[in-house]
Specification:
By secondary structure, this protein is an all-alpha fold. 80% of the residues lie in helices and 0% in strands. It is found in: Cell membrane.
Length: 414
């Protein structure tokens, strides 16, 4: 007997799913750093270990959870993942302790791997692969609206109780999982053949093949190394910049100097500045973004990231430190699509997904390896020292970009 109540239009279902996801994520993450420091009292090392635990959970469970999506059901994988993420959000909101927060990272990290790839694969199954690109572009706009609304809501609720937006985000994700279980239809799913399923052997083969391609192609080899170095630096900075910002005295605006208000404002301003910078760059110099060999612009953006991190570490003024932080964030956001397009142009179609996966693995390995030592350094030598070390780790990247020759010159050397 057919289940007729699972008949919602897949495009509408996907848009609602991603919009609610974006809203709940912003509701949870906007003030999570303030919550970790003020309510849970986490040290710099503990903050970094929280991020490392999340990265490790995602890395270890990506393959086993992918098997569920391939073997049983994309829909089931998404529903399980969203529910686990909701439980993780809720756990850390209910218990402001280090162990509970670590457990929450495992829950929502594993949950994320259940949804990773499965949601887009489900969409492609239901509407056809040729229709996916247009839906994703439009859905991204809905997601941005959800992020903005979630950020503002987190700020308002955080003024009442820092844990409130985190707990509500968890409840919201659990409700979303229930609704997806009821309304998310799946009529075109076909199990992936055994030989094509993601397995640990397949992951090992992916690593070996990616390494072989990287050895042969200077651009790919350099981008893998850059991804590893960026990972070594980023985990500590991403977790410790909030600690430094919280050390400043916020000015009083609209009768409040509450960090919940200011972190909401900072999140919105950072998003807006990045968007404006992207639009300006696309308007004034589109040829640099689509250049066949954009090593010059990437070297400049990488240098701006190094300057931003080091300036943020050393400056003792709130507004100057924020300007440095935004410089780093904007340069990072602008460089990603340029680098991604460059990587895609330097690998064949048959090995593209493998090589991109290999580059992502290099970044994850860097984060897991680099985060704890820098967190320990922050505890022993101080926050400024750890942030300076994070910036110095990035220092080789501009030179790595700059030394890459044009494809014609490289071809002569290979």
């Amino acid at each position: 007997m057919g289940i007729t109540y699972r008949s919602a239009d897949p495009v509408r279902t996907y848009r609602i799913y991603k919009t609610v996801w974006s809203f709940c994520a912003a509701l949870c993450f906007t003030l999570s750093a303030v919550y970790y420091v003020r309510e849970a009292g986490l040290s710099p090392l503990q903050l970094v270990l929280v991020g490392t635990t999340l990265e490790l959970a995602c890395f270890l469970f990506e393959i086993p959870t992918g098997i569920v999506a391939d073997l049983y059901s994309r829909r089931l994988s998404v529903v399980i993942g969203v529910a686990l993420i909701g439980c993780g959000f809720l756990l850390q909101g209910l218990s402001p302790t280090f162990l509970a927060i670590l457990g929450a990272q495992v829950l929502w990290g594993v949950g994320y791997t259940f949804t990773s790839g499965a949601d887009q694969a489900w969409l492609a199954d239901e509407i056809g692969a040729d229709q996916v690109a247009a839906v994703l572009v439009r859905t991204q706009q809905f997601g941005l609206g959800g992020t903005i609304l979630g950020t503002v809501s987190a700020g308002a609720l955080g003024l009442l109780d820092l844990s409130l937006p985190i707990k509500l985000s968890g409840i919201g994700m659990i409700v979303l999982a229930i609704l997806l279980g009821v309304f998310m239809r799946e009529v075109n799913f076909h199990r992936t053949p055994v030989g094509e399923r993601e397995t640990f052997k397949h992951m090992a083969d992916t690593f070996k093949h990616g390494l072989a391609v990287a050895r042969k192609r200077p651009v790919v080899r350099t981008l893998v190394l850059i991804s590893l170095i960026a990972g070594l630096s980023s985990e500590a900075f991403d977790r410790l910049w909030q600690v430094k910002i919280l050390s400043f005295q916020f000015p009083t605006v609209f009768g409040t100097s509450d960090p919940a208000f200011w972190f909401t404002v900072l999140g919105l301003v950072g998003t807006l500045l990045t968007l404006i910078s992207s639009l300006i760059l696309h308007k004034l110099s589109p040829e640099r973004l689509t250049a066949t060999h954009p090593n010059g612009v990437l070297a400049l953006l990488a240098l701006l990231q190094v300057v931003g991190v080091l300036a943020f570490a050393l400056l003792g003024n709130l507004w100057l430190a924020l300007a440095a932080m935004w410089l780093r964030s904007i340069a990072d956001a602008l460089s990603w699509p340029i680098e991604s397009a460059w990587l895609n142009r330097n690998v064949e179609s048959r090995s593209r997904a493998t090589v991109i996966s290999f580059v992502s693995q290099a970044n994850a390995i860097g984060q897991v390896a680099g985060g704890p030592p820098l967190g320990a350094l922050a505890g022993r030598a101080g926050l400024r020292t750890a942030l300076v070390a994070s910036g110095l780790l990035l220092a080789p990247i501009p030179a790595l970009y700059a030394r890459l020759r044009t494809p014609a010159v490289e071809a002569d050397r290979v």
